[in-house]
């Protein structure tokens, strides 16, 4: 079931969104819904709660630049 949503945005931005929707043969409602779906999707977690940097470091040894002269 669909529900109505009222939003307020700058007129200039709305004009750009209307043009974009027309050029891509879609509606503003569809663009908003797709964007919100992307926002609420569960993001895949890295193993053991690692950050992306920690995860990438686990694949290769990187030189330690903390000892630079």
Write a structural description.
With 69 residues, the protein is mostly helical. The protein has one domain (11-61). The protein contains 3 helices and no strands. The protein has helices at 11-23, 28-40, 52-57. The radius of gyration is 22 Å and the shape is elongated. The N and C termini lie far apart (65 Å). 0% of the residues are buried.
Key words describing this protein structure:
mainly alpha; 46% helix; 69 residues
Give the arrangement of secondary structure elements.
Layout: H1 11-23, H2 28-40, H3 52-57
**Can you count the helices?**
3
State the distance separating the first and last CA atoms: 65 Å
Order of helices and strands: HHH
Radius of gyration over alpha carbons?
22 Å
Question: Quick gist of this model?
Answer:
This protein is an all-alpha fold and 69 residues long. The chain contains 3 helices and no strands.
